[in-house]
Specification:
M1 Pyruvate Kinase, Domain 3; single chain; about 35% strand; four-stranded antiparallel beta sheet; eight-stranded mixed beta sheet; 3 helices; about 280 residues; mainly beta
Length: about 280
């Protein structure tokens, strides 16, 4: 992946990074740094740990909403996982750690098995057999050809290395929710990596390339949303059909709805809250 940006960009300093969010453990709550590095797999360490069942299939909030009750942060070369009852640091597995075959949707690949004590504790939280695994840098999971060339190495994320949302899109959605008699929801329902402020509603649907700080990105497609956005991230409880129903009125795409944009990292670098977002002039 290139470390330099050569495309011509338009001045869009009014659009800035509002917040950054790293989710070291797929499906769990994450943390929000002020500054963070970007590499080919997205925000560094994002979704590099995962919980799998006894068959190696990933566990997410779609099938176990209690995942929202687990918080994941980084503590040096360790994953710090915590719940309301306990906190533990789990070192990144060594190169000689046992491996198993894991599955995320249609992708199958080898991963390293993590601390069995952490797996036991997580199994108790989720109330199902669970095993914590980690993706090493040499894991060759690639983005789908449907998301364009060149393909990029991917973490345990569902579809793409990064997800971007805008505060304008959330404000529009919350206006519609309140108009329909429902409560407004926070941005954490959408589990974005990068949230930007200053864009107009729907502008991100037309972005194809952008630069933030020292990193450059390619927008591949709008993110189709599932029932995870109906889960209260603070309680791990389903809240009904909203905001899926509200989104269906104006963000329908085929049988589903969209909110936010999947992105690939085209040039690595560091990005920060407050950074200006420059949109490629040839793509608007």
């Amino acid at each position: 992946m290139s470390s330099a940006v050569t495309s011509t960009t338009s001045a869009t300093s009014h659009i800035i990074v509002d917040s950054l969010h790293v989710y070291p453990l797929k499906g769990a709550a994450g943390f929000s740094p002020r500054t963070w590095p970007v590499d080919e797999r997205g925000l560094r360490h994002d979704r590099r740990f995962m919980i799998v069942d006894e068959h190696g299939a990933f566990i997410s909030q779609r099938t176990n909403a209690r995942m929202a009750l687990i918080r994941a942060e980084l503590a040096g070369d360790a994953l710090r996982i915590s719940t309301a009852a306990w906190t533990m640091d789990v070192p990144f597995p060594a190169s000689n750690a046992p491996t198993l075959r894991a599955t995320v949707w249609d992708d199958c690949f080898d991963v390293r098995v993590s601390d069995p004590n952490a797996s036991r504790m997580l199994s108790e939280v989720l109330r199902v057999p669970a095993q914590l695994v980690w993706m090493a840098d040499d894991c060759a999971r690639l983005t789908s050809i449907k998301r364009g060339d060149p393909r990029r190495h991917l973490s345990f994320a569902d579809a793409a290395p990064l997800l971007l949302t805008t505060t304008a899109a959330l404000e529009e959605l919350n206006t519609r929710l309140k108009r329909g008699g429902s409560s407004a929801i926070p941005m954490d329902r959408f589990r974005a990596n990068i949230v930007v402020r200053g864009a107009s509603v729907g502008a991100d649907d037309h972005w194809r390339a952008l630069r933030i700080g020292g990193a450059a990105f390619r927008v591949s497609n709008a993110c189709k949303r599932c029932k995870v956005i109906t889960i209260d991230q603070s309680t791990g409880e389903f809240t009904g059909n909203e905001p899926l129903t509200a989104l269906a009125a104006y963000r329908a795409e085929g049988p589903g709805v969209t909110f936010g944009q999947h992105m690939m990292a085209e040039a690595s670098g560091s990005i920060s809250v407050g950074d200006a977002v420059a949109i490629d002039a040839t793509h608007g």
